Structures are given as C-alpha cells and as structure tokens.
Amino acid sequence: MTKDSNLTVNLRRNTTDYALIVVGALLQAISYVLFLAPYKIVPGGVYGISIVIHHVTQDLFPFFPDGLPMGATALCFNIPLLILAIKKIGISSGPKTIVTFLLISIFTDALSYITGSTPLVKDDSFIACFYGGAILGIGVTCIFKAQSTSAGSDVLARVIANSTNIKVSNTIIILDSAIVLLGLLVFQDWLVPLYSWFTIFVYGKIVEMFQSENPNRAVFIVSTKTQEIRNLIINKMGMQGTFLHGRGMYEGKEKDIIFTIAERKDLPKLKADVKEIDSDAFVSSMHATKDSQIRGI
C-alpha cells in the first residue's frame, strides 16, 4: 500500500471515528439533561456525581442559581482522572478521549442552558430512567466503536485493577454502586437508587446488545522486532503480555512470539502500531475470556 493510500485510509477512519464521537457525546448529553438529571437519577460514573452536585448546589451560588453546571463539574473530575491514567497505565486513545469528554461537557451544559431543568417526559420517572439508560447505552456504544472512551470512573477502575487482583468489570460495579448510594444519602429517597440501578441495567444491556462480541481478544504477534513491540504494548498501550518461545517450521529458526490480551476497541490501534514498527509482522487474534491480568512468565 502506497503512502498516499495510507493517508487516505487513515483520514477516512479518523473522519468516521470523530463523527461517531460527536454523535455519541450528543446522545449522552441528551440522556443526562433531558431524562436522568431532572429526576435525580444517578447513573454512576462522573456524571452521576455531577448530577448529585448539580442538585445539592441549587440556590447556593448567586451566579449559578440552578446549581453548578453538570458538564463543567464532570470536566473537573475527568481532567485529573485522565492525567492519572496516562501516568499509571497509559491511554492509547488519548486525543480521542480528550475530545470525547470535552464534547460531552459542552453538549451537556449547552442543552441545560437551552432546556433548563425541564424533563422531556414529565411525571414519569420509570420512562425517563428506561429511555435515559437506552440512549446513554447507544451513546457509549458509538464512543466505543470510535475506539475512544469518555474517561470517568472506568479509567479509575482500570488504574485500580492494574495494581490489584480485582477485575476491571468488578471495580466498575463497585465504583458505580458507591456513587448510586451517594445519591441515596444526599437525596434521602429510596427511589433514587432503585431507578438509578435500573438505568445502569438498561444501559449495560444496550451496550452488550450492540457489542455482542467478547470484549477481550487473545493476540499473537510474530515479528523480528519483539523488543520494540514489547515497549509498545507495555509503555504505550498500558497492557501486559508474555513471550512464547517457538521454532519456525520451514527454516527451523528459534523465535519469540508475543502473546497478550487486548480489549476489542484497542485492537485496531495495536495492529496499526505493530505494522508501523514491523510491516512484515504477523498478527493474529481470537476471542478470549480475561479472568486475570496477564503477567510475564
């Protein structure tokens, strides 16, 4: 493939990815502003905290009589979380992640300014939490398909899981549940956690429906530049792996094969970076269940 062809393919891919990010960010903002926040539904994550702070600070500041803006508040959490993640685990989708959480914050506060605190569906918390969770799930799916993330509690969960034996999925559940319980403590209403957990359930099912494949992929890389690829996997991608020793069947030469587990959304980036290091590298992947962190043997 020529250099011009590579540029065309990359431009097309980036255009599609950023279009998905815009759509996904807008859908998430719609979910927060028009469905969840008016009913004090706390969907976990950074925006769950922001919704709580937004309601608690109403009439507290003269320049924000309706409460602190949810988007700006979320931004105050996302920026330090992103810095922490870059230092601890590295993020391969850094620029896209920054664009993603900036757009969600901008869209959220712009919609709040336009619509105020009026819900799209009045006097029906159940419909609001159901459709709010569904729209949130579609928005998150768009972000995932763009190989990005909206930062937030999932980034913190990856940092915690990276230094413990707790799975990332379990860490996310613990963090989100703690934020939902925060809503219960602040609002003193059992309907808040009940509706919030239902929203999280719907959101999770929507993401699962559109991301039906196993999110983890077992990746085998055969290359003569194993040390460079090792540095890519560990230092840039924030992943771990194992060297498998093998022997070529044709020439009988000893060689190292890199084995690692990658999240499906990170796989295209990993393949592209490996090809930049070694255009002759062979990369193969298959479905995998990641029961624990991969450690070097």
Explain what this protein looks like in three dimensions:
This protein is α+β, with helices and mostly antiparallel strands and 297 residues long. 61% of the residues lie in helices and 10% in strands. Strands 2-3-1-4 form a four-stranded antiparallel beta sheet, with helices on one face. A hairpin with a 6-residue loop joins β2 and β3. The longest helix is centred in the N-terminal third of the chain and has 34 residues. The C terminus is likely disordered.
Radius of gyration: 21 Å
Which regions have little confidence, pLDDT < 50, spanning 5+ residues?
Answer: 290-297
Find the structural class using helix and strand composition.
Answer: alpha+beta
The first-to-last residue Cα distance is 37 Å
Oligomerization state: single chain
What is the overall silhouette? elongated
- β-strand percent reads 5-15%
- Percent of residues in helical segments? 55-70%
Spatial sequence of strands, sheet with the most strands? 2-3-1-4
Count of runs of 4 or more consecutive helical residues: 10
**Total separate domains:** 2
Order of helices and strands: HHHHHHHHEHEEHE
Largest sheet, in brief, is: 4 strands, antiparallel
Q: How confident is the prediction overall: mean pLDDT?
A: 84
Number of strands: 4
